[in-house]
């Protein structure tokens, strides 16, 4: 209000001030230095008035938004018990003409959803039934051109899940980079007890290199709302047998804050690190210290 009163006083003072002009050219007067023509004064007042009214409307809008958030709008109340489980894993297969890709994704999908894959494609919409041999032939044909292969797989509507698979040829062999997201409605809970068994299956049968599993409160249908959501929290991290041998078993087993569980063959084990229950963000600090420890001499 004091800004408005000051502007009104300035407007009155400018209106009473005589307009001083001098002739630069005949018939084309212009104001002397330090003076303003009346139309300019009114234009400046008009611009300030419009800005002031817009500012007041903006403040009222922000205040209304805060009040709605305090009252608990549908966007701020969260997903009401819905959860998403995120899995990121990497496998490295030796080059073999009889290799069939997609086995690691099948094992993870079956363990976490209890249902088979519905279809796959190299782009949306997904319109092909799940066929590991067909996607292997596609990846082999693209590898001959030194090109990676990317595809997406989806599940049934009653068991929402979506995954991406990237296949690339490296010096170590054929590498699969898999991301899988599974949605859980309030009546269903993630099978957290089955995660060590899944890690052992991937390590012993599907050449697991590494795997990170995270949990977050989010929509079970795997859609993304137009507002901020809490980030996922790490549940566990797994190192495959080859990665343990490369880092050194003694070093991998002496990680701070977390004690790993050996999986698979005793002479060539994989290591499974449990980081928490998916609710405490301190798990990010455990994962950071573990990563720093494993990469200290590399």
Give short descriptive properties of this protein.
298 residues; alpha+beta; 2 domains; nine-stranded antiparallel beta sheet; two-stranded antiparallel sheet; 8 helices; globular
Description of the structure:
The chain is α+β, with helices and mostly antiparallel strands. It has two domains: 42-77; 83-294, no CATH class. 36% of the residues lie in helices and 25% in strands. The chain has eight helices and eleven strands. The protein has helices at residues 2-16, 38-71, 103-113, 132-143, 195-205, 241-247, 249-253, 282-294, and strands at 21-25, 28-31, 83-93, 119-121, 149-154, 161-169, 174-184, 208-217, 233-239, 261-263, 270-274. The protein has a nine-stranded antiparallel sheet. A two-stranded antiparallel ribbon has the order 1-2. Strand 10 and strand 11 form a beta hairpin.
Short account of what is shown:
The protein has 8 helices and 11 strands.
How do the strands and helices of this protein lay out in sequence?
Elements: H1 2-16, E1 21-25, E2 28-31, H2 38-71, E3 83-93, H3 103-113, E4 119-121, H4 132-143, E5 149-154, E6 161-169, E7 174-184, H5 195-205, E8 208-217, E9 233-239, H6 241-247, H7 249-253, E10 261-263, E11 270-274, H8 282-294
Antiparallel strand pairs: 1-2, 3-7, 3-8, 4-5, 5-6, 6-7, 8-9, 9-11, 10-11
Helix pairs in contact: 1-2, 3-5
Compute the number of structural domains: 2
- Give the strand line-up of the largest sheet: 4-5-6-7-3-8-9-11-10
Task: Determine Rg (CA atoms, Å).
Answer: 32 Å
The averaged pLDDT comes out at: 82
- Report the biggest beta sheet as strand number plus sense, adding barrel if it closes: 9 strands, antiparallel
Oligomeric status: single chain
Q: Please report the total strand number as a whole number.
A: 11
**Strand-pairing-aware structural class:** alpha+beta
Distance between the termini: 64 Å
Stretches where pLDDT is under 50 for at least 5 consecutive residues are: 19-42, 68-78
Order of helices and strands: HEEHEHEHEEEHEEHHEEH
Helix content: 25-40%
**Fraction in beta strands:** 15-25%
Tally of contiguous helical segments: 8
Give the overall shape: globular
